[in-house]
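@channel sequence for tomorrow's demo:
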Amino acid sequence: MEATRQLGKSDIRISPIVMGMWQAGKEMWAGIDDQEIRRALRAAFDAGINAFDTAEMYGKGHSERMLAAATADIRGKVVYMTKVFSNHLKYDQVIAACHRSLKNLKTDHIDLYQIHWPSGAWGSRPVPIEETMRALNDLKSQGKIRAIGVSNFSRAQIEEAARFGTIDSLQPPYSLFWRQAEKDALPTCAVNGITVLAYSPMAQGILAGRFGAQPAFAKDDHRRGHRLFQPDIYPRVQDALERLRPIADRNRVTLGQLALAWVIAHPGVCAIAGARSAAQAAENAGAAGLTLSAADRAEMDAIGRTVTAALDDNPVQWNF
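structure tokens (generated this afternoon):
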């Protein structure tokens, strides 16, 4: 596996595994410790991860501030990725949000600045993509951002955004157990040289084998509403995991590493993996060292489809 990959058409190079920073914001998660997150960030970097993905919405900037606190002394060696939320997509709002993120990150530039959700999502007021892209292009020309990305966009939304500027990345939910992006966005990204940054590549920890037959979550843990944990789907998930274990064993990797290796085996696809401890971060990074055989990939593909066959086409993973 190559050490780094080109991000879209930009001159940015990123590791195949990117560390996700949602959990570092604490909101909608339980049991997160700031000091342990900082140790996890450094462990990820020491293990070969150079890219970190956060957002203004993750703990109202807390995640961004945690990233800065842990990596300020190695800023020149790491790639900062953050996002503007769907309620801040008017021209002036984008500019203001970017400046807040620059302040939180204690940096003079953001390497990849992304639209977190399309305009109109989560009850936000619709804003023409041309207006949002004008703000992003201006920030780029000023050197405040280096590349523009989108997240949770459909093929049509990607194509519309690309009319007004260069789109270097797409963040969709994508894993062995969540594959709607294969029907729509992934082919478009492949044709147009857009890097796919797959989030939830371990299906929120399911593919790491972290949950038993009856998972229990704290009241404020967002995973309570994840569709893969619902009673009509979860038994299929458990059966599939048991069939994946022998493949992990013969490759001498964990289930989580196997799931990440499957994602990054796809050309142009990197995996955003969260971690709440140094051990998890190092384990995630280790997935970049596994090259799956064609036979293993085919077997995993078939196993994954026993789960995805029971899902509808709704790309949103949660029943909020």
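heads up for whoever presents: The CA atoms of residues 208 and 243 lie 13 Å apart.
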